[in-house]
Amino acid sequence: MKRAYAAVDLDGVVADVRHRLHHLAGGRKDWDAFFAGIADDPVHPEGLAVAKELAREHELVYLSGRPERTRAATEQWLARHGAPAGTVLLRPDGDRRPARITKIGILRRLARERPVAVLVDDDAAVCRAAREAGFTVMEATWSRPDATLFEAQERLGET
Fold first, then answer.
1. Within its chain, how far is the Cα of 83 from the centroid?
2. What global pTM score does this model have?
């Protein structure tokens, strides 16, 4: 019997991206520099602990708004930090929809395969949309997205 999914966000949940946010501040966004810093992200110990705990009884899915072009850096980062094995689901390159729309669509697709036990995310808009869609949510309170990251996720549809 297949285990239920547990979906865990990366940025702000398992990975601490605060050191990269300056690339998104102001009018001109340097997305290439922002994503180039993935390798240097510190780990959020609370998020890694949650991922490890969920992986014990669920099939782990890392559900991120990062673009597909960051796959190699993302997978290397997860391995280097001892993150539990899981499927990495990223936003298609060029997809600029808000994270709350992209992620809920992916959760619905996953739910057609088997139950989604929980979504762990730090974005209040994503959490609200997931709850409204009927998913159980664990809000990552150890990291609250600042206005720069929220704008990137929700208005610009970039991460």
1. 14
2. 0.89
